[in-house]
């Protein structure tokens, strides 16, 4: 050892009391010294044999002896305890035993030794701290701070400058007191100056507090003092590994050997070539290029040791503490000369008061590396380590030792210890977007630990009873938030063994969620960032911990008890945080948040809805009632459950509206009873519709309902009844199956979406429709806009009355209805080729030379045979797309397609839609994909599920032979045939999300009969079939009949044009009904060839017919050509005739034509004598008893 500087009391231990020692001089200690602590006038040494020595002034007993010493003298009084560290204040000393006990001696006027005493000349056990195991201690002038093995920070002594960090104005504390504001903060080092203190985390985060008159806390100000720990922000990402403090200045060393300093600089102790004070950490530029391995502070000077074993010093030198043979202070680092033998190298340094020390080692016996020099040598709080992992690897199921149990319990009981246990390689860069945590390390350790039954019991008990309750409400730093990721991962593994410790595990999850929910806003924001960066594996593990606890609670608790505790509410609030993160980052599919046991349970859904409505009503009345409801967290419901809730809400509103109307009628009658002129309103919305005028009738009657009522569109909230003119069919129950209403909406939407109206345009590639862009031509047309408004009302009316509508809009429509922004994925769905091209543009590199692609910020659109170039931005057709602006181009293009080009039309559509739906509070609970499902129904039908939910009547049951035959035959049908059967039975090809119940009724008729469908009941009159093959044939005839019915409806629409000539060219008739632009050049010629035969459509009061008149010059090839052309036209989806049905009808027609044409060469007749081949179709379905009944028409019925 070497010492230099002030030695007026022999504090250097050189054997003399020379006032000053101007250069490093050897100390004859005859021992290998491993630790030095120096106070104002004394020094304490710890040797490798764990003996404590002291020298210097002993006026207050700070040497632990009876008198002063100028040479190191042995300190006794520790009993059997082995000392591993020593520390010194101005006039007192402290030693830490391996057992974690503290011993102290010297002056204690301010409670430095936890008592009020002038002097203690012998080491005294500090029993007030005995129940903590201390691993580090730091002493200021008159105060102490200690770090325990659990990571707890304690402080005691003088507090005149807030140096204890307790946030208290008391001037002294005689007992060790926890610095609660640092709870759960991981700590690797504590430090103390004369009247200020600090703690450093393993990731380099520094908190300081205490006296700050010179800016020594590094907070950027020189406030007199700071009584609570505060972050030194400028050092956050500097990778600080060590901190030292002097009387009024502070320094730190970084992982790469850089040095920062701040505080009082009046003696040059900051090393910035200045005497100025610095209030924020500032890098010592003069040490750039030098790797500093160790650094320490005296009262007003600083010394350092470099990787080249070179001593540097700066600051006050009035007592030769810089070892330069003069007393000139240094403002820059200067070399401290020291004479060493060839086989020794400097290994450590120390400083205190106005004295300095250095130690050396034999290099040959102990090679010194920079990494060794940089190791601080402090004992660390407990944390999970590879050493502990090795112990558990060898245990298997053997009993844990007492020490292993204590260590494991300490780690999982202490927030700080667990926090420091699984740091990632990037933990130095911990910030709001990087937790610095390795969940893979954590998971690997937990897999290993949970294999051992004893260790998992210890872990769960520790987490439940100690760790979670001690989580801070206000985290001191973002590093503390790591626990909010680590704990749920621990619970994930514990959940797999919960049956083995049910008592302990119960309540763990909700206790953690309650703590996490209480985080302040900034903490929650950081936690969300971290959660979003986890990836699917760990995010799903955290999600499933919460989800499974909710499901477990639901399983064992009746719905009536949900509000008796806040258990579900706490879990759902945390669950909501995960949902919000997932919504922003799309980590998992949204259906992962659906709660089992909640969805599909009608009574429970109604109970939940009732609680929700009750809470809202009481809240509006000013007397809030706390009623838990999952409706507050709608993301836990799947689309089917939400559709049920919407149905409940809509029906309640309908009943309320009907009751209000009834009451108004009663009041009106009472007020006008004498005049007898009371004006009564219907309690329902009744639409009397003609099939051949379905669109005009609906528009006129809806507009009448809206404008007749002062409520406007809300008048449509009453129950809806649809009656087709001339038919007896009427829905039997407005709250259940409604076949007539269902068919009405199907036919109405078909009519609205007919391309001849120009409201929408179908894409040939995707077969999806979107609002037709008219470039603002009709945007100011009130009538045109009103059509879109009514279209929105019709769609909302269908949903409001629990009907699905087959609208072929892209997903973007549902996103826009719910306020979400369409993106490139939506463009790919609507216009696949365009979307893929945009994808290529985005993925292009600079080498692809986008400028050569000929793209500009404009778009060409063709509408009604007119092509227009439109600027996407002002002057866009002159702005070429390049590598730098390609993203702007794609975003602008998408915005144009989905927003700009259809703005007025969509806004009117949404206005109409919202006019009905804005009062339905369930509507806003839907996600876009869920809204799509309830509007258009399930696209994938579970046919086996329909079979399992079917009901049987009048003698039929699931095991009946006829029922077995029926389902066996049904499942042999193709997907298309099954959907046609669905239309026949229910009036729609889609299945509602709430499911479909098919009713099969036994009828005592011949097996030659075909089934009869009652659509309002989803009821099928099923003859007693016994043969599967014949039943398949019967069901296929149903499919054909369904297409004929659709064709009949088409003919009725054509006939409604009231064209009087008995024979009108079929192509011209179609041109009247549909937009000519819908036909491609190869399907219909511009001029109808005179060589072709003509077709006519004729309707009378009985029926409608397609008539074919053969030309005398027609031959078989021409007839075939005509049939093919007609097939293409009828197969067009606009006419809604399937290919199979069209080919059947036209095949029959073709056979007749060919047969007739073979004889045409032998028998010539005039046009007036040409035979007529008539396909008779019913003009309207046959009415059944109080229900729309679809009868089947066999080939024999076609004349």
Automatic annotation (TrEMBL):
Active site: 1016 (glycyl thioester intermediate)
Span of domain HECT: 712-1048
SMART domains: HECTc
Transmembrane segments annotated in the record for this chain: 1134-1155
Residues in the signal sequence: none
RCC repeat start and end residues: 1-49, 50-99, 100-150, 151-203, 204-256, 257-308, 309-362
Keyword terms of this UniProt record: Membrane, Repeat, Transferase, Transmembrane, Transmembrane helix, Ubl conjugation pathway
CDD domains in UniProt: HECTc
Protein name, as recorded: HECT domain-containing protein
Record lineage: Eukaryota, Metazoa, Chordata, Tunicata, Appendicularia
């Amino acid at each position: 050892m070497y010492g230099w500087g002030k030695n007026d009391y022999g504090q250097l231990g050189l054997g003399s009391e020379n006032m000053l020692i101007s250069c490093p001089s050897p100390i004859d200690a005859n021992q290998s010294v491993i630790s030095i602590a120096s106070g104002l006038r004394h020094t304490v040494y710890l040797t490798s044999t764990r003996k404590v020595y002291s020298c210097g002034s002993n006026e207050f007993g700070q040497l632990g002896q009876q008198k002063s010493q100028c040479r190191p003298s042995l300190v006794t009084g520790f009993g059997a305890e082995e000392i591993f560290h020593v520390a010194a204040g101005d006039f007192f000393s402290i030693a830490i035993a391996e057992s974690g006990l503290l011993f102290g001696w010297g002056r204690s006027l301010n409670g430095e030794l936890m008592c009020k005493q002038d002097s203690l000349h012998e080491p005294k056990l500090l029993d007030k701290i005995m129940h903590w195991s201390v691993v580090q201690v730091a002493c200021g002038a008159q105060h102490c701070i200690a770090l325990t093995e659990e990571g707890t920070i304690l402080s005691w002594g003088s507090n005149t400058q807030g140096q204890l960090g307790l946030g208290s104005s008391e001037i002294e504390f005689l007992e060790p007191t926890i610095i609660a504001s640092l709870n759960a903060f991981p700590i690797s080092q504590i430090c103390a100056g004369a009247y200020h203190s600090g703690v450093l985390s393993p990731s380099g985060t520094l908190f300081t507090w205490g006296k700050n008159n010179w800016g020594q806390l590094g907070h950027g100000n020189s406030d007199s003092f700071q009584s609570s720990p505060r972050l030194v922000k400028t050092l956050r990402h500097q990778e600080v590994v060590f901190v030292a403090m002097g009387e009024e200045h502070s320094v730190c060393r970084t992982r790469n050997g850089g040095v920062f300093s701040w505080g009082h600089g009046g003696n040059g102790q900051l090393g910035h070539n200045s005497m100025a004070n610095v209030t924020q950490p500032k890098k010592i530029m003069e040490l750039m290029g030098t790797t500093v391995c160790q650094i320490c502070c005296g009262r007003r000077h600083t010394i350092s040791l470099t990787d080249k074993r070179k001593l540097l010093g700066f600051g006050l030198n009035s007592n030769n503490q810089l070892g330069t043979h003069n007393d000139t202070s240094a403002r820059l680092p200067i070399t401290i000369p020291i004479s060493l033998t060839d086989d020794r190298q400097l290994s450590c340094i120390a400083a205190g008061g106005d004295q300095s020390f250095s130690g050396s080692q034999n290099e040959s016996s102990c090679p010194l590396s920079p990494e060794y020099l940089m190791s601080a040598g402090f004992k660390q709080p407990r944390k999970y380590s590879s050493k502990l992992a090795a112990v558990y690897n060898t245990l298997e199921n053997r009993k844990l030792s007492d020490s292993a149990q204590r260590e494991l319990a300490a780690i999982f009981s202490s927030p700080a210890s667990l926090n420091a246990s699984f740091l990632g390689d990037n933990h130095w860069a911990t910030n709001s977007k990087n937790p610095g945590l390795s969940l893979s390390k954590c998971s690997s350790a937990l897999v290993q630990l949970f294999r051992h039954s004893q260790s998992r019991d210890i872990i769960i008990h520790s987490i439940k009873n100690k760790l979670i309750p001690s989580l801070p409400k206000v985290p001191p730093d973002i590093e503390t938030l790591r626990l909010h990721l680590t704990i749920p991962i621990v619970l994930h593994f514990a959940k797999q063994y919960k049956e083995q410790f049910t008592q302990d595990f119960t309540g763990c999850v909700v206790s953690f969620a309650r703590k996490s929910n209480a985080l302040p806003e900034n903490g929650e924001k950081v936690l969300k960032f971290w959660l979003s960066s986890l990836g699917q594996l760990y995010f799903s593990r955290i999600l499933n911990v919460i989800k499974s606890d909710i499901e477990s609670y639901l399983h064992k608790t009746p719905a009536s008890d949900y509000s008796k505790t806040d258990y579900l509410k706490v879990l759902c609030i945390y669950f909501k945080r995960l949902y919000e993160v997932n919504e922003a980052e799309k980590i998992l599919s949204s259906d992962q948040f659906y709660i089992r046991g909640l969805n599909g349970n009608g009574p429970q859904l109604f109970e939940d809805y009732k609680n929700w409505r009750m809470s809202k009503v009481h809240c509006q009345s000013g007397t809030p009632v706390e009623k838990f409801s999952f409706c507050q967290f709608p993301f836990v419901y799947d689309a089917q459950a939400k559709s049920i809730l919407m149905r409940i809400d809509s029906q309640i509103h309908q009943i309320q509206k009907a009751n209000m109307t009834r009451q108004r009628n009663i009041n009106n009658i009472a007020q006008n009873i004498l005049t007898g002129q009371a004006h009564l309103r219907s309690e329902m919305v009744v639409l009397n519709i003609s099939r051949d005028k379905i669109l005009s009738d609906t528009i006129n009657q809806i507009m009448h309902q809206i404008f007749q009522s002062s409520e406007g569109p809300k008048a449509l909230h009453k129950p809806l009844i649809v009656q087709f003119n001339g038919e007896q069919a009427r829905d039997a129950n407005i709250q259940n199956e409604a076949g007539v209403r269902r068919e009405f909406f199907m036919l109405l939407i078909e009519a609205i979406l007919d391309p001849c109206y120009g409201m929408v345009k179908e894409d040939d590639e995707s077969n999806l429709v979107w609002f037709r862009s008219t470039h603002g031509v009709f945007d100011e047309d009130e009538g045109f806009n009103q059509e879109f408004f009514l279209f929105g009302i019709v769609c909302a009316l269908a949903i409001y009355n629990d009907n699905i509508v087959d609208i072929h809009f892209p997903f973007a429509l549902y996103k826009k209805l719910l306020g979400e922004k369409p993106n490139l994925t939506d463009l790919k769905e609507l216009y696949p080729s365009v979307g893929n091209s945009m994808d290529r543009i985005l993925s292009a590199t600079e080498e692809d030379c986008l400028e050569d692609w000929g793209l500009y910020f404009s778009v060409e659109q063709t509408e009604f045979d007119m092509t227009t170039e439109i600027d996407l931005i002002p002057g866009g057709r002159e702005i070429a797309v390049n590598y730098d602006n390609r993203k702007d181009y794609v975003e602008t293009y998408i915005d144009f397609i989905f927003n700009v080009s259809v703005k007025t039309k969509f806004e009117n559509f949404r206005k109409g839609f919202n006019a009905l739906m804005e009062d339905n509070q369930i509507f806003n609970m839907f996600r876009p994909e869920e809204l799509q499902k309830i509007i258009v129904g399930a696209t994938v039908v579970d046919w086996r599920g329909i079979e399992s939910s079917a009901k049987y009547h009048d003698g039929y049951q699931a095991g009946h032979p006829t029922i077995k035959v029926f389902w066996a035959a049904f499942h042999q049908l193709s997907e298309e045939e099954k959907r046609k059967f669905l239309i026949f039975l229910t009036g729609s090809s889609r299945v509602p999300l709430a499911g479909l119940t098919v009713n099969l009724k036994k009828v005592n008729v011949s097996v030659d009969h075909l089934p009869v469908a009652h659509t309002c009941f989803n009821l099928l009159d099923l003859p007693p079939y016994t043969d599967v093959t014949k039943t398949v044939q019967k069901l296929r005839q149903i499919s054909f009949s369904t297409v004929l019915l659709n064709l009949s409806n088409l003919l009725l629409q054509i006939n409604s044009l009231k064209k009087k000539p008995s024979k009108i060219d079929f192509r011209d008739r179609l041109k009247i009904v549909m937009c000519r632009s819908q036909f491609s050049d190869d399907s219909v010629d511009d001029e109808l060839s005179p060589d072709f035969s003509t077709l006519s459509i004729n309707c009378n009061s009985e029926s409608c017919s397609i008539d074919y008149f053969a030309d005398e010059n027609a031959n078989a090839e021409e007839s075939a050509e005509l049939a093919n052309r007609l097939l293409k036209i009828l197969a067009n989806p606009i006419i809604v005739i399937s290919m199979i049905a069209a080919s059947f009808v036209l095949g029959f027609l073709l056979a007749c034509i060919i047969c007739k044409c073979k004889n045409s060469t032998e028998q010539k007749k005039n046009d007036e004598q040409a035979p007529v081949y008539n396909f008779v179709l019913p003009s309207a379905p046959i009415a059944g008893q109080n229900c729309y009944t679809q009868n089947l028409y066999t080939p024999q019925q076609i004349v």
